[in-house]
Design goal:
The chain has one domain: Cytochrome Bc1 Complex, Chain D, domain 2 (Orthogonal Bundle). The longest helix is centred in the N-terminal third of the chain and has 19 residues. The chain contains five helices and no strands. It has about 130 residues and is mainly alpha-helical. Helix 2 crosses helix 5 and helix 4 packs across helix 5.
Length: about 130
């Protein structure tokens, strides 16, 4: 099942040039849309709050963090042995096809292939600092 981009989010992506003089406003809109999409697709397994337990590893501060490095999380061997950092391109590749990006990972999800949705979720993740 592919996540559908709500019409307002698609309009935001199309209208981005209109916000050229207002980058902070557009970024705030992207972050909010990303939060909504994260809550719809990712929050069932992942938390962005350090004091909340979740099935998947904590995603607070994920951008710039070494893969497989959240203390006390039982990662798959594939992620324990991964030697990359969660950059924007790495996260987008993971969001689209985690099994293709890191074969052997235990995470199972329906890939989000829409680049607009990926960008919005990434904007939200980038806004969360630990």
């Amino acid at each position: 099942m592919q996540l559908k981009v709500p019409a307002v989010m698609m309009m935001l992506a199309i209208a981005a040039p209109a916000f050229a003089d207002e980058p902070e406003i557009f970024n705030d809109i992207k972050v909010k849309a990303g939060e909504d999409l994260f809550n719809a697709e990712c929050r069932r397994c992942h938390s962005v709050e350090a004091d909340r337990n979740s099935y998947g590893p904590l995603l607070e501060g994920v951008v710039g963090r070494k893969a497989g490095s959240v203390a006390d999380y039982p990662y798959s061997e594939a992620l324990k042995n991964a030697s990359f950092v969660w950059t924007a391109p790495a996260l987008k590749a993971w969001i689209e096809d985690n099994q293709g990006f890191v074969p052997g990972t235990k995470m199972r999800h329906v890939g989000i292939t829409d680049p607009v949705v990926q960008d919005f979720i990434l904007a939200y993740l980038q806004s969360i600092k630990s």
